[in-house]
Amino acid sequence: MFECFENLVNTRQSCREFNDKPLDASVVEKIATLALKAPSACNSQPWKMYLVTKPEKVKAVAESLQERGRNPFVSKAKAFVVVSERDATLFESAVQKFGKNHFVKYDIGELVAYLTLGAQSLGVSSCIIGWIEQEKLKKAVGMPEGEVSNIVVALGYSDIPVREKKRKDAVEVIKII
Ligand SMILES: Cc1cc2nc3c(=O)[nH]c(=O)nc-3n(C[C@H](O)[C@H](O)[C@H](O)COP(=O)(O)O)c2cc1C
């Protein structure tokens, strides 16, 4: 089990070169269903996922992620999971101590980690996209007023070999006390 997780974190990488292999909608659904198991504060699950798999919708979402020439590679993504943030429903004592939505962005981070690692476990490459043109994206997926998405996960297949990870040294970020 541990080896399996180790392999996933070592091979998951942001994919900026998707190939032409089609991605079945059922695989995207499987990835999203696995991610529903992600933890969240008070188990409030303050998220919604829009699974974008129809070609015309995929194109519209891709266009909302390319403002100022950013993320041109998303044009070759085969699907997107658009993650929107919702109000959390924490225990009353937690609301009083932290405020209603204090943990929402952490919760979304957990969901996105599950999405990307879940995708990797099924051989699907991914890239988290935070550069979003909000109104365009909302229109593309038909998101209701008041809902916001700050994270989209682009999905597809790739032939790119695993890169060496560039990370801070453990001594910089881990302190054993
Ligand atoms: C919140 C967030 C937003 C990101 N937004 C983008 C983005 O808009 N475009 C992009 O190419 N990569 C984006 N990334 C991917 C990061 O650049 C990438 O995870 C980081 O450089 C580490 O590389 P790796 O994922 O290949 O290990 C984002 C990652 C996170 C967590």
Can you describe what's shown?
The chain has helices at 2-11, 25-35, 55-63, 92-98, 104-121, 134-141, 170-173; strands at 47-52, 79-85, 125-129, 148-156. The protein has 177 residues and is α+β, with helices and mostly antiparallel strands. The protein has one domain: NADH Oxidase (3-Layer(aba) Sandwich), CATH 3.40.109. The protein has a four-stranded antiparallel β-sheet, with helices on both faces. The radius of gyration is 17 Å and the shape is globular. The chain binds flavin mononucleotide.
Give the secondary structure arrangement, pairings included.
Blueprint lengths: L1 H10 L13 H11 L11 E6 L2 H9 L15 E7 L6 H7 L5 H18 L3 E5 L4 H8 L6 E9 L13 H4 L4
Helix pairs in contact: 2-5, 3-6
Tell me briefly what this model is:
The chain is an alpha+beta fold and 177 residues long. It has helices spanning 2-11, 25-35, 55-63, 92-98, 104-121, 134-141, 170-173, and strands spanning 47-52, 79-85, 125-129, 148-156. Bound molecules: flavin mononucleotide.
